[in-house]
Amino acid sequence: MKNAIVKNAFVSKAAATLIATLFAGAAFAQSTAPATAPAAAAHAEAAHAKEVAKEQKDVAKAEAKESKEVAKADAKVAKEKAEANKDVAEAKADAKVKKANAQEKTAKQKAEAKEDAHANLTHAPQTK
Fold first, then answer.
1. What is the pLDDT of residues 97-116, one digit of tens each?
2. Bias regions of kind Basic and acidic residues — which residues (predicted)?
3. How deeply is 53 buried, as exposed, middle or buried, from its count of CB atoms within 10 A (0-12, 13-18, 19+)?
């Protein structure tokens, strides 16, 4: 009978161990399934975030390039305006010089014409 009790105790322990293992296995299986889903979701989310960051970086690069090109174009326009204003100023200065020279020449011609007219009046023969 002692043998039967030991045998029953062994069977009881074995059954208890088997049942405990099944419960532990079931609990472990349930806890690992949700753990892999968030990991996969986190991985997909990280990949998406990386992709979004790359797109934002590309957009920022494009905007910086556009800003640089606009600044270059504005600088070119400003330079051309400055050159045009310089040309206009030079043309105005040249026109003033030409006008002054023409006025001086005209004044000389008038003075010479007056002198000639006066000389002709004084040396003209008088008729009686």
1. 999 999 999 999 999 988 88
2. 48-118
3. exposed
Q: Is the dihedral of CA 85, 91, 93, 95 positive or negative?
A: negative
Say what the alpha-carbon torsion angle 78, 82, 83, 84 is, to the nearest 10 degrees: 100
Q: What's the predicted TM-score (pTM) here? A: 0.42
Any idea where the domains of the chain sit in the sequence?
Answer: 72-121
What is the residue type of 54? Answer: K
CA dist 60 to 28, 53, 54, 63, 67, Å?
47, 10, 10, 5, 10
What is the C-alpha separation between 102 and 95, in angstroms, rounded? 10
How do the residues of the chain divide into helix, strand and coil, expressed in percent and rounded to 5?
95, 0, 5
Amino acid identity of residue 113, one-letter, is A
The per-residue DSSP string of 76-118 comes to: HHHHHHHHHHHHHHHHHHHHHHHHHHHHHHHHHHHHHHHHHHH
Give the torsion through C-alpha atoms of 10, 14, 17, 23, to 10 deg. -140
CA geometry: angle 75, 79, 81, nearest 5 deg: 115
